[in-house]
Design brief:
The protein is an all-alpha fold. Helices cover about 70% and strands about 0% of the residues. It has helices at about 20-50, 55-60, 60-85, 105-135, 140-150, 155-160, 165-180, 185-200, 215-230, 235-250. The N and C termini lie far apart (about 55 Å).
């Protein structure tokens, strides 16, 4: 059944001024491709800097690696926000299933998103992952980046993961990709496909440990529901930012963090 809160669209016709499924998939892949392309010149330079006597003497190697990661994510994210705004200006502020969702959200919707990110997903996601892991060590790449770096060097990555990264990923997955898929598929299938794409795209952050996949898919499903029910990406951004903040706090609170 169509969602009565959202404007009806014909599944066989693309929404005016909005992305199609192929365009949306290319857009998402471009984001991760940009990160890879930026890393090609960046990380060899980083390797050379880390061998410099001054860097070695002061132990700045981990700090440089963290800053390079921030630079990589930040540049790729800003480029993709600019690209999506340029490509689909008509759909940018539309709140329905044929828009990208940059529309105002009610305070209660912001609150719902924050509660999902602060309580629901951290509790359910961590329980599900630990249950599937059966006592195996659960590692995430950002853990080592943050714990090995100095305190001041952590500030940029903390700010990035609770501001720009949630906005960019919600724009691409719950704005561009979800709206495009809802033009071709029923709501449930569009949400499942978007959630699967999000989970697979982030599995590398967990060193491809398969037992992290269900929790990632659950997180993506909750974000998609927030987007559809509110008509805006902002509740999902709030949930994404709060969830990232909880993860950062857990890392900084671990006994291995300096």
């Amino acid at each position: 059944m169509p969602d009565p809160a959202l404007p009806a669209i014909h599944l066989s016709e693309p929404a005016p001024g909005g992305p199609g499924p192929t365009q949306a998939l290319v857009c998402v892949l471009t984001y991760f491709g940009l990160q890879l392309a930026l890393s090609l010149p960046l990380y060899p330079l980083l390797g050379w800097l880390r061998r410099h006597p001054a860097v070695t003497a002061h132990g700045w190697g981990p700090d440089l690696l963290l800053w390079a990661t921030c630079l990589d994510l930040g540049i790729a994210g800003l480029i993709m926000l600019g690209v999506t705004r340029k490509l689909w200006p008509q759909a940018w502020a539309r709140e329905g299933s044929d828009g990208l969702g940059f529309a105002a959200a009610a305070p209660r919707q912001w609150l719902a998103g924050a509660l999902v990110g602060l309580i629901v997903i951290p509790l359910l996601g961590s329980w599900l992952t630990e249950w599937l892991a059966h006592g195996q060590t659960i590692t995430e790449q950002i853990d080592a980046l943050i714990t090995d770096a100095g305190r001041w060097a952590r500030i940029p990555i903390v700010l990035l993961t609770v501001t720009l990264v949630p906005v960019v990923e919600e724009t691409l997955f719950r704005g561009v990709l979800l709206s495009a898929l809802r033009q071709r598929f029923p709501r449930a299938m569009a949400v499942c496909l978007t959630s699967a794409a999000f989970a697979l795209a982030h599995l590398g952050s967990f060193d491809y440990q398969w037992y992290a996949l269900p929790a990632l898919a659950l997180f993506a499903w909750a974000l998609a529901e927030l987007r559809i029910r509110s008509g805006s990406i902002w509740p999902g951004v709030a949930a994404h930012a709060c969830n990232n903040a909880v993860a950062i706090i857990a890392i900084l609170g671990s006994p291995h963090a300096g």
